[in-house]
Amino acid sequence: MNIGMIAHDAKKKLMQNFCIAYRGILSKHSLYATGTTGRLIEEVTNLSVHKFLAGHLGGEQQLGSQIEHNQIDLVIYLRDPISPKSHEPDVNNIFQLCDKHNIPLATNLATAELLIKALDRGDLDWRELFKT
To answer: 88-100 vs 59-68: helix axis angle to the nearest 10?
Structure first.
């Protein structure tokens, strides 16, 4: 499955730790991430990550396009709810696209862990039925 990953600056270390902890599961799937997040994931896990532009430079829009074309099966978006972002419309666009296309979306560590464990159990295999 294709997993989209985004982390705001304050959550990048958390994303790295998440990817270290679930490296075994993530290694069985294709990873897509905004530029800096992808690079940081690769540095600590040696996993291969397809990197888009940095989020604020259009990476979130590139990931959104993949979602729009039903090419992403799961999104982990560790966001910082405390510090508003100047590109907040892009953030909300990801949420709307996931809702529109029934893409499972985690915005915090607890939900990310639930989804990654469900992915490993095969609970998200239904996504294969929606691929074109």
So the answer is: 10
In a domain? residue 132: no
**Residue 42 gets which letter from DSSP?**
H
Structural domain of 72: 2-121
Q: Would you say 3 and 29 are in contact if contact means Cβ atoms under 8 Å apart?
A: yes
- Number of domains present in the structure of the chain: 1
Query: pLDDT digits over 93-121, tens only?
Result: 899 999 999 999 999 999 999 999 999 99
Residue 22 falls inside a structural domain: yes
In a domain, 64, yes or no: yes
pTM tops 0.90, yes or no: yes
Tokens, residue 104: 């499972």
Of 2, 3, 21, nearest in space to 113 by CA? 21
